Amino acid sequence: MTLAPPPAAAASGRTAVGVRATARIAATAGGTTTTLPVLDGDGPFELRRLRSHGSEARVCIVGAMSAPLGGDRLRIEASAQQGAALHITSAAATLALRGPTSEHATYDVHLTAGEHAQLHWLPKPLICAGGSDLRQTWTVDLAPTARLVLREEQILGRTGESPGHVATRLTVRGGGRTLLDQQAEYGPGAPGWDGPAVLAGHRAAGQLLIVDPDFEESPLEVQLLGGSPEEGQAVLTPLAGPAALVTAVAPDGLRLRHLLDTAQAAFRRTVPGGHGRIRVP
Q1: In 3-state terms, what secondary structure has residue 267?
Q2: 99, 161, 106, 101: which is closest to 129 by C-alpha?
Q3: Residues of 170-202 as b/e, b for ≥16 C-beta within 10 angstroms?
């Protein structure tokens, strides 16, 4: 006997076991510009070309359906090949919701950048609605001369709502060596997530990661950004490699965005633009 999916799931083409979807983006250098020979959306991912900025190709991810829901298995693969410059953003925040199944959802992002390539991953925030359960990973592989700007923001619950559960892992390798490998878990069921050693009552967390080979010779110094702990704070930390990481926590998404914008402005002052240097957007 075959069981029919719930009516809401059937209407959207979603089965009780969730959606399986992979989107693929590939950027290649062509003279003074970057082209997009692969731009393949799938399931909830609709990919749109945006106006180029200099030699940089730009792509916007547009949600074509509600996702991720419980049971969904979503994946994005993006690569900037040798000499290419690729900027990826999203049209709106990603909203993780409870699904028609008790299974958790997964959202995996795999980024690669070749020699002298630049890759910017700058989507809108992830909102983990009450009752949601999400596992999210970022896996980044960079050539020794590649450059990366990666920003991620997580908001636990909508206004006046209890938080959902999210577990994340970010792994970044440069030239075959690990630059960063960290895990975090927030929301119901995660030990100590709301305590003073983790979010300390805040409901928004985010990171800004910059990888630039020039940091090998000119590493950044530790900086504390923001005002009082109650209003949210961020810390800029150099990594053991050509990279620096900003980690921020704040009471809400608006103040988190302000902290990360302040951090990006600090990078703009510290890391000048120009040939052979990363351009911090």
Answers
A1: helix
A2: 161
A3: bbbbbeeeebbeeebbbbeebeebbeeebbeeb
Cα–Cα distance measured from residue 54 to residue 120, given in angstroms and rounded to the nearest whole number:
14
Tokens of 280: 């911090």
Helix (H, G, I), strand (E, B) or coil at 280: coil
Question: Any bridge partners for residue 151, and if so which?
Answer: 208
DSSP per-residue letters across 124-181:
PPEEE-TT-EEEEEEEEEE-TT-EEEEEEEEEESSTT----EEEEEEEEEETTEEEEE
Each residue's pLDDT tens digit, 182-221: 999 999 989 989 888 889 889 999 999 999 998 887 778 8
- pLDDT tens digits for range 236-259: 999 987 899 999 999 999 999 999
What is the C-alpha separation between 135 and 167, in angstroms, rounded? 5
**pTM: predicted TM-score of the whole model, two decimal places:** 0.87
